[in-house]
Amino acid sequence: MNIQFKAFDLDPIVSHVGVHQTHLSQAPQLLEQAVQDADEANRYMRMFYLFQGTQQEAFSLELQQKALSIRTVYKLDLFNEAETLRVLAIVAPGDMMQNLPLDYLLERQGIELTLLYLLPNQPLPTEYPDHDVTVFALGQSSQNEVFLSQLCDLIPFWPKPFVNHPQYISLCARDKTYQALQHIDGLKLSAQRQYDRESMVIDSYPCTIRPLDSHAGQDFEMLRNEIELSVYLEQHTQEKFYVGEYLNYQSSDGQYRKFRVALIDGVPFVSHLAVSGHWVVSYMSANMQDHPSKRQEEADFMKDFEVKIAQQFKSQFSAIHQTIPLDHLVLDCAISRDGELIVFELDNSAWVHNTDSKTLFPYKDQPMKILMAAFSKMLHSKMEQAS
After folding, report:
1. How far apart are the C-alpha atoms of 383 and 387, rounded to whole Å?
2. What's the whole-model pTM score?
3. pLDDT digits over 125-135, tens only?
4. Are both 208 and 301 inside the same structural domain?
5. What is the CATH number of the domain that holds 291?
6. How do residues 306-337 score in pLDDT, each as one tens digit?
7. Which residue range is the domain that position 10 belongs to?
8. Rounded to an integer, what distance in angstroms lies between the CA atom of residue 92 and that of residue 115?
9. Average per-residue pLDDT in the chain?
10. Of 331, 216, 348, nearest to 282 (Cα)?
């Protein structure tokens, strides 16, 4: 396979993290800058980032498609004073759930970030932006499986050091994760099975159900009997679903606690703890900003994470990394009533960030800086090992 690298002279554009950290009053200024960008492809892609995360999802994706019809390579502004490493992220079209949001991990880390989008129903390109380290940043999804298969064929010919082998990204599918990790002692997982709508026969309740590519608790419900299954299928028109074992991880005080861990080179780093009265826990729905006691608990959890979680479950984290050897992998976890580590989900593209209010969440800044520095160090070590 003939792979070539070339320089692309591109103006950097404001990305998700830049928009996220911009005060609402400055949004008209960002939009004006986007509209006035002389580079037509940049113009559309800037507006894609601006409208992502608003109530105009479909419109933002239309803008992305217009950008990609002109050019598939873009450079993101990461607020660097100087740049010592060039990273190329291979990504897929779609919203920010489709790819690892590297801009949140790499802001102000002295790293130049260029994105190359793959296009559906087309062969992989033979010409790529020159760079030092590649990150295969596509998340696992039914949409991206074709891309991941193509990239697996590319790997034997790829001359650059890279992060996250596409073969192992595919193991982040919920049913494949369970099959891969169920043998690990001290690790508890929900047995997951994929069903077509027509072939769905459930023989054990209670269970959980969600559409195939859903995230963040969207359309995720518990079913207690066949009547509830029938109602759920009437309300949801998707064709494929994950059905899983319901794990009751409610604490003695009636609350549910779920925490996010980033495994970087197999080493666990804490990202957050969410505390909620509902069994479907996400950081957004937990409304941590409204509860000082929850924030204090999260602060204590993050402070004690190394001793109480990382060391206590060292063998489980190590076994996960050995079985699914992704350089960067995000886990959503809890502690079972029996004291075992529960892993609900593995995701190479989950959101890890340091954009929460420093006033409300002052305790998160230092752990997140440590996490981001570890990710940056891992990228630099990839380049050093290859030289």
Report:
1. 6
2. 0.94
3. 999 999 999 99
4. no
5. 3.30.470
6. 999 999 999 999 999 999 999 999 999 999 99
7. 4-164
8. 10
9. 94
10. 216
